[in-house]
Design brief:
It is a single chain. This protein is mainly β.
Length: about 500
């Protein structure tokens, strides 16, 4: 439910038209309806493009960086800033430049002073773009698994994230034999790179490729410092934090669980064993907020091509004698007949994670019905941790539909995010639907987590809206909404909704 249409993040070429309007939500909930100031940026018709928000020019509001690729594989970067008085704001083009064809990916890193930098990655080096002088500055010279520029896109690869848990962005860059970890200090300077050993994974699709192992920041030994863990070929490898960085050699954690190795997962995914049951590692985090990491596993049961059953199992951890042990029996179980996708989110900021689960039922009858109606139903559920446990029944649930047309090839699917649009410290569920507009279900902060009744908005976009994400553009304590439009069709656009009191 966090991002049900991840591919809709591919945005496009900049146009010149920008408009602004103010509107409020139509209240269907008993809570006061939030209001927004709307700022639209019309985009052109690129082959591919991405949008990166950030405080690149040091102003009071975030900017938008747009990277486009046209049919001739020409790459262009443009930066837009919000201009004008409240109620009459618009986007103003402040910078534009060509990007070389050797640019492999880009990202945004937040600095300790509250500003952001655009990162530009090439083979063996990463620079940052100085938007005020239109020049690139050296940042890191490090090898990685990213060595070839895609011919038709400049993707975002999120190498900037808080690895150490101190609230500051660090750099986690994957190499073939491990991760380069570059920690940011409180004054905005950077430590020397640390290398933690872990092999790169392999993913299959239209072509086989290397992929980075996901890094899990946890306190494994209970000393109050943030360690780094990796799931690597059936083993949990933990690099313990030291005074100078991380231990050279990882320890292999004894989970007490029989989880599948990568080779077995690949063989089943390739269809070599259509009737199988697998228990795989899903993730590691302090889900229940007690300061100790927990583990989530996924059990997939298949009795045929279209008969699938997915179960998620959560095992709480306990610190004992300088290590973390896990209970052999699961402390929470989420099960459904179908295919599930799970995510976590801390809705009320209490340090405890809520689980959100998307479920799609698969059968011959459902496939035939989908072909006839052009509609595929799926269920979104949320489970909130209350009274020391996760409930058996969902705390919040709703059914959505994925619409498609075999004749035109068009698709229409809702996207959702969690955003505190009211500034009360509790995230609200925000759903965007191409037919109905925008719906905001207020966060309750109680056992129900999200209010059943929502506020509806008559949302007329420049083009078809397909994705929404949250970001506080003006640092007023209320999340704003970045809505991306025109996925799969032209023209394209971006709408920013600034939350208002």
């Amino acid at each position: 439910m966090h991002n049900t249409v991840a591919t809709a993040r591919r945005l496009g070429r900049v146009g010149a038209l920008a408009t602004c309007s103010i509107f409020s939500l139509i209240a269907a909930s008993a809570d006061p309806a939030p209001s927004f100031e709307r700022i639209d940026l019309a985009l052109g018709t690129p082959e591919d493009h991405i949008v990166l928000p950030g405080r690149f020019r040091g102003g009071a509001l975030d900017d938008l960086a747009v990277v486009t690729v046209n049919e001739e594989n020409q790459r262009e970067l443009s930066i837009h800033s919000i201009a004008g008085e409240p109620g009459r704001r618009t986007w103003r083009l402040v910078h534009r430049q060509r990007l070389d064809e050797d640019v492999i990916f880009m990202d945004v890193v937040g600095l300790a002073d509250g500003t952001d930098r655009l990162l530009v990655a090439r083979r063996g080096r990463i620079s940052w773009l100085d938007a005020s002088s239109a020049s690139e500055r050296p940042f890191l010279d490090l090898p990685s698994i990213y060595n070839v520029a895609p011919p038709d896109e400049v993707p975002r690869v999120e190498i900037a994230r808080d690895v150490t848990g101190d609230g500051l962005d660090d750099i986690a860059l994957a190499d073939f034999d491990g991760y380069w970890l570059v920690r940011q200090r409180e004054d905005g300077s950077w430590h020397e790179p640390d290398k933690v050993a872990v092999t790169a994974g392999v993913s299959g699709g239209f072509a086989w490729s290397y992929r980075p192992r996901y890094a899990y920041p946890i306190d494994f030994n209970g000393d109050g410092r943030t360690d780094i863990a990796f799931w690597d070929r059936g083993e949990l490898l933990v690099h313990l934090a030291t005074d100078s960085g991380y231990a050279d050699q990882p320890l292999v954690a004894d989970l007490g669980l029989e989880l599948e190795k990568d080779e077995r997962i690949v063989s089943v995914a390739m269809g070599e064993d259509p009737e199988a049951e697998m228990l795989t590692f899903w993730g590691m985090e302090d889900y229940n907020g007690d300061g100790t990491p927990d583990i989530a596993a996924q059990r997939m049961t298949s009795s045929g091509l279209l008969s699938k059953k997915t179960t998620y199992l959560v095992h709480f951890g306990t610190h004992e004698d300088g290590t973390t042990t896990f209970r052999p029996t699961p402390d929470a179980t989420f099960v459904s007949d179908g295919i599930q996708v799970m995510d976590t989110i801390d809705v009320d900021g209490d340090g405890v994670q809520e689980f959100t689960i998307i479920t799609v039922q698969v059968s011959v009858a459902r496939i035939i019905a989908a072909l006839i109606t052009g509609s595929v139903p799926f269920d979104a559920e949320m489970y909130a941790f209350t009274n020391g446990a996760y409930p058996e029944e969902p705390s919040f649930s709703r059914r959505f539909h994925f619409e498609f047309s075999l004749r035109t090839g068009s698709i229409s699917s809702p996207d959702a995010t969690f955003a505190d649009v009211t500034g009360d410290g509790i995230k609200d569920a925000v759903l965007i639907n191409t037919d109905d507009g925008l719906v905001v279900h207020p966060g309750t902060g109680g056992a129900t987590v999200i209010a059943e009744q929502g506020h509806e908005i008559e949302f007329t976009t420049l083009h078809e809206a397909v994705s929404v994400e949250e970001r506080d553009f003006d640092d007023d304590g209320r999340d704003d909404l970045l809505i991306r439009t025109g996925f799969g069709q032209d023209p394209k656009g971006v709408t920013v909704l600034l939350s208002r009191e």
